[in-house]
């Protein structure tokens, strides 16, 4: 029997990152989450959240799933929802990449763009999606639920039960360290929980972009953010329910100037075109490798594919506008006017 679309979510390959491994004397591997059908790590969260709601009897055929998302969770939810006979209503900050908004539209999500305002503002996309779900639960004939990826621990539990176990099997138990960035914290806290249960002395590290508050939280106890990042889908300002009870062994704050050259070198030297959060993750893996010393096996996450950011990360005019260096080859290869 060949698999359904849903059965192709997860069980992604673990790819050896050649340059990062050679530079550190460690084996650095990336979990190829961009190979999921919705092309990101968030297909897993979409699937776990919908299956959990079904188990609780909260979803009926034709029901609506509402979510606030930087895009990838909306894509993951929509792929799964369409395959199972549900609808999605997705609230996205207008600052997110056009490619992700287009992907949501062509997948059949009902898309609502809102201004990007901080979480404390009642018009923040997450809060708008929560209110909308409440209203739709009353008016929709087949009901509506709020996926609530940030505080719904079905997200974290799913990573504990699948992503962590896959990494354990794929490294044959040799994994010594795991590191990634946080959007909801589902990936980091879930994989940490799953791997720590198998190997209590494994080292878990947070790779935080500038503009996020968790690096400061885990190093000084204070939620404080400084600077900014062009990465999308990561950079958390609070301790979400998915992060409750979790603590990393190490925390790193990674500027875009460290992450972007890694992304560009992967394109040119390894045939991998990946999104900005993956650059933060691999920079974090390199820092953890240096911290632990040569000979260790370190795993991180290749979150999504680079074409999702063609108009930003791979656009010389955008990079220049942000004061970031533009690699020579990109000037020749990409000509998108802005
Ligand atoms: N990278 C990208 C591109 C994402 O969209 C997300 C999810 N928002 C993450 C990383 C972080 O994953 P998580 O929500 O599990 O922390």
TrEMBL record:
InterPro entries: Cys_Synth/Cystath_Beta-Synth (IPR050214), P-phosphate_BS (IPR001216), TrpB-like_PALP (IPR001926), TrpB-like_PALP_sf (IPR036052). Its EC number is 2.5.1.47. SUPFAM superfamilies: Tryptophan synthase beta subunit-like PLP-dependent enzymes. It is an enzyme of class 2 (transferase). Its cofactor is pyridoxal 5'-phosphate. Keywords: Pyridoxal phosphate, Transferase. Residues 7-304 form the Tryptophan synthase beta chain-like PALP domain. GO terms for molecular function: cysteine synthase activity. PANTHER family: CYSTATHIONINE BETA-SYNTHASE. NCBIfam families: PRK10717.1 (NF007989). This is Cysteine synthase A.
């Amino acid at each position: 029997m060949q698999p359904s679309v849903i059965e192709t979510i997860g069980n992604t390959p673990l790819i050896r990152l050649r340059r990062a491994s050679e530079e550190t004397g460690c084996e650095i591997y990336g979990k190829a989450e961009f190979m999921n059908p919705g092309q990101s790590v968030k297909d897993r969260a979409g699937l776990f959240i919908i299956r959990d709601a079904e188990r609780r009897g909260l979803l009926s055929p034709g029901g609506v799933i509402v979510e606030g998302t930087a895009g990838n969770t909306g894509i993951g939810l929509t792929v799964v929802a369409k395959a199972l006979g549900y609808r999605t209503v997705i609230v996205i900050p207008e600052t997110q990449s056009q490619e992700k908004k287009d992907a949501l539209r062509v997948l059949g999500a009902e898309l609502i763009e809102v201004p990007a305002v901080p979480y404390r503002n009642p018009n923040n996309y997450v809060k708008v999606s929560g209110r909308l779900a409440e209203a739709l639960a009353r008016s929709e004939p087949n009901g509506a639920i709020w996926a609530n990826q940030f505080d719904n621990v079905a997200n974290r539990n799913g990573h504990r039960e699948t992503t962590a176990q896959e990494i354990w099997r794929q490294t044959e138990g040799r994994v010594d360290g795991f590191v990634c960035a946080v959007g909801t914290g589902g990936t980091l806290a879930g994989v940490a929980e799953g791997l720590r249960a198998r190997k209590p002395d494994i080292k878990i590290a947070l790779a935080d972009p500038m503009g996020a508050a968790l690096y400061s939280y885990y190093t000084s106890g204070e939620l404080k953010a400084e600077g900014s990042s062009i990465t999308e889908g990561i950079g958390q300002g609070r301790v979400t329910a998915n992060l409750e009870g979790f603590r990393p062994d190490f925390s790193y704050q990674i500027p875009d100037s460290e992450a972007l050259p890694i992304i560009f070198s992967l394109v040119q030297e390894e045939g991998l075109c990946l999104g900005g959060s993956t650059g933060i993750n691999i920079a974090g893996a390199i820092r953890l490798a240096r911290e632990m010393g040569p000979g260790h096996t370190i795993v991180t996450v290749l979150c999504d594919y680079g074409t999702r950011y063609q108009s930003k990360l791979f656009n010389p005019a955008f990079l220049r506008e942000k004061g970031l260096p533009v690699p020579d080859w990109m000037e020749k290869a990409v000509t998108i006017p802005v």
